[in-house]
Write a structure and sequence with these properties.
CATH superfamily of the largest domain: Metalloenzyme, LuxS/M16 peptidase-like
InterPro entries: Metalloenz_LuxS/M16, Pept_M16_N, Peptidase_M16, Peptidase_M16_C
Low-confidence stretches: 1-18
Family: Belongs to the peptidase M16 family.
Number of domains: 2
Largest sheet: 7 strands, mixed
Shape: globular
Protein name: M16 family metallopeptidase
CATH class of the largest domain: Alpha Beta
Number of helices: 15
Order of helices and strands: EEEEEEHHEEHHHHHEHEEHHEEHHHHHE
CATH topology of the largest domain: Cytochrome Bc1 Complex, Chain A, domain 1
Mean pLDDT: 93
Strand content: 15-25%
Structural class: alpha+beta
Organism: Salinimicrobium flavum
Number of strands: 14
Helix content: 40-55%
Radius of gyration: 23 Å
Keywords: Hydrolase, Metalloprotease, Protease, Signal, Zinc
Length: 439
């Protein structure tokens, strides 16, 4: 289908006028189930080719963790027609750049090329999907790469494991309880056959979305997509049946230790609805009220006025099945962690019982209007958004229409949603402490 909507022009509350061009795109599906989205922008000779796979950290094989993140690395090893170690050389020698990333819910690969290399980008992604070389030498190489990444980003980084500690306490049954990077013992124990099985299950055209965005000719691009991706056979339909979590009804008190820090932290974690639910959008606004910028409530109170915290943040972490809402603070000086909890709860209680002011509401709307305008400011960003909205939200039109959801959120909803989810008996209270030599 072809989506063509009007030019959106936003008069911002502060008196500045921002204009966001409607993102036009064409969407269709190949016979093998591959979803395709095309966005034409001929303003610069650049094109992004991207494939998002519906597989993430929550997807296991034989109950082993970490496979999706591992494949983020493994699928750069090479293919039947791209030699081992040649992928990045091929991209850079043709004036391009590329990368990949994995979340609990999806894996995303992309290349950015001069537009005269569009065909190369499509061929490379079709090679990744159809002809990857999965052999023991590549698995062994990437196993060491993943272990080193884990050491650098998590084990040896200050506060590196905080989200994993929160998740492991918020979830008892759902695979969100385990780190996206997985447990190294699972990857060490995995067989080559299991890696091949994992690829055969998840890395198929009917479990993927291809986005081509930038300086393209639509008809020629469709022809190339059909040539390179059309012959790839579909896989079996992926079915999931993850266990449901029981509601949290009593405060969960937890402690974690980090040998990389000297300053402790307090973290309050709440299990919230999945990212497609309206309440998840409202929680985005709750986060902004509490900690977005120096004039936000928690920052102004704890950092500026009372000088009890070095830093404070309220984060709404969107995921497909369940969200995670986390408020965290680092104390200043000898401020006790329980004092920070008391002060944070006081501000949350105000949100739960009083409407934010009209001025605060207008400022909030202004921020989200600006975010919307900026989110579609690059072709690469548009490509990522198109894939995300199609795969995780099931509605590609949100690239143009999501701002309408935020616009429609009322002050009353902000109060009611804060009251619904952000209560002490519904949370994890995690003390994240420096690890002493004796511990």
């Amino acid at each position: 289908m072809i989506n063509k909507l009007k030019l959106a022009t936003f008069a911002l509350f502060v008196g500045v006028t921002a204009t966001a061009q409607e993102v036009e795109f064409e969407q269709y599906t190949l016979d093998n189930g591959l979803d395709v989205i095309l966005h034409q922008d001929n303003s610069a000779p650049v094109v992004t080719t991207a494939v998002m796979y519906d597989v993430g950290g929550k997807d296991r094989i034989n109950n082993k963790t970490g496979f999706a993140h591992f494949f983020e690395h493994l699928l750069f090893e090479g293919t039947e027609n791209i030699g081992q170690g040649d992928w990045f050389k091929m991209v850079s020698s043709n004036g391009g750049s590329n990368n990949a990333n994995t979340s609990n819910d999806r894996t995303y690969y992309y290349e950015i090329f001069p537009s005269n290399n569009l065909e190369l980008g499509l061929w490379m992604e079709s090679e990744r999907m159809l002809h990857p070389v999965i052999k023991q030498s590549g698995v062994d190489t990437q196993n060491e790469v993943v272990k080193e990444e884990k050491r650098m980003r998590y084990d040896n980084a200050a506060y590196g494991n905080w989200i994993n500690e929160i998740s492991s306490n918020l979830f008892e049954k759902h695979p969100y309880k385990d780190p996206n990077v997985g447990y190294m013992e699972d990857l060490d124990a995995a067989t080559l056959e299991e890696f091949k099985q994992y690829f055969d299950i998840y890395y198929k055209p009917n479990n993927a979305t291809l986005v081509v965005a930038g300086d393209i000719d639509i008809a020629k691009t469709k022809k190339m997509i059909q040539d390179y991706f059309g012959p790839i056979p579909a896989g079996e339909e992926v079915t999931r049946n993850f266990p449901k979590e029981e509601p949290i009804t009593e405060t969960i008190e937890a402690t974690a230790y980090d040998s990389n820090i000297q300053i402790p932290a307090i973290m309050l974690g709440y299990r919230t609805p999945g990212m497609t639910e309206r309440d998840a959008y409202v929680l985005d606004m709750v986060s902004s009220v509490l900690s977005d910028g120096k004039s936000s409530r928690l920052y102004k109170k704890l950092v500026d006025d009372q000088k009890q915290a070095l830093q404070v943040a309220a984060l709404n972490i969107g995921q497909k099945d369940y969200g995670q809402y986390v408020v965290l603070a680092l104390p200043l000086g000898e401020t006790p962690l329980d004092t920070l909890v008391t002060e944070i709860d006081e501000e949350i209680l105000k949100l739960q019982t009083e409407l934010i002011s009209q001025r605060e509401y207008e400022k909030l709307q202004n921020k989200f209007e600006n975010r919307f305008v900026n989110s579609n400011s690059s072709v690469a960003g548009i490509a990522s958004s198109l894939a995300t909205y199609q795969m995780l939200y099931g509605n590609t039109d949100l690239i143009n229409e999501e701002i309408d959801i935020y616009r429609s959120i009322t002050r009353e909803e902000i109060r009611d949603v804060a009251k619904k989810y952000l209560n002490p008996n519904q949370r994890v209270e995690l003390e994240y402490l420096p690890k002493k030599d004796s511990e």
